[in-house]
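Quick question, first post here. What does this chain look like in 3D?
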Amino acid sequence: MSQRVSMKLYRFQSLPTLTESLVNVNLSSWDYLQNKNESNIVFSLATAAGSNVVGYVNLDRSDIPLDNITLNTGRTFAVKKETVENRGTSIRYYVEVASKKFYFKKSQDNTDVSNSEVSIFEFYVNPQRVKPVYNKLITERRTRGGWEIQHWGNALTEISVSGQTGGLHRDITRSKKPGGLGETLLPGESITESTAWKKLNQLRQYYELDRSLANKNSNYKLGFNFYDRFYIGYFTSFEGPEADANSPYLMNYSFNFKVEQEINIGGADGQFGSILNVDTEQQS
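> Answer (accepted):
Ran it through. Tokens below.
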């Protein structure tokens, strides 16, 4: 991994699922409310039996994407539902304004484009090795008539990342304060007080929290940049810290990352200008 470009870990709001994309295949950005999603719907149990009205929502002019529709501020609209049959049955919600339907985005979807690079983790020292592995999905079965081979396209890319913590010295934030101690640990002082050790633990914490609930989809996905590619996916394994007697102030670590989406970001030094669904909330 080049030392010139800092490798960072990002957190993204979950992208629309394949089913949602198929259901909304005929909708454009002009068909969606701008500042509202399904979490803004006030559902009501008092609707008439058999009615497709499920509740209501308050809308302002800024919520409507089309300029040629007149809307008084703060009007309340009935929210309706419709069933869509497209490789499965799904329900989507909408309001009617000036005889036109405007749909709600899913609560977890965020289709705003962010031009900022907001990260939740920056590696203290760039990893020594980043290795993407690409495989094909192939089924091979022996039959009496010979080999039967079925090709299923590309498998999910898996990336192996390995590196070292950097020097396990004193917490650099303390050493830079007026009257603070130097960066070198004193005899008997624990390496767990060092910035490098804390960074490794922070990375391990993101691994532990990623998809930590069984049989439950996460509202967030992780991603990182590597040259002209951006990978979005999830952790599959983590190893370390690994101690070496010949290097007592360096620890080795490694992890594997499964890729659900690969984006060609281009730009100088692998920096990206804009990616959908950036979650701007940073964790401490």
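The CA atoms of residues 240 and 253 lie 4 Å apart.
DSSP finds three helices and 17 strands in the chain.
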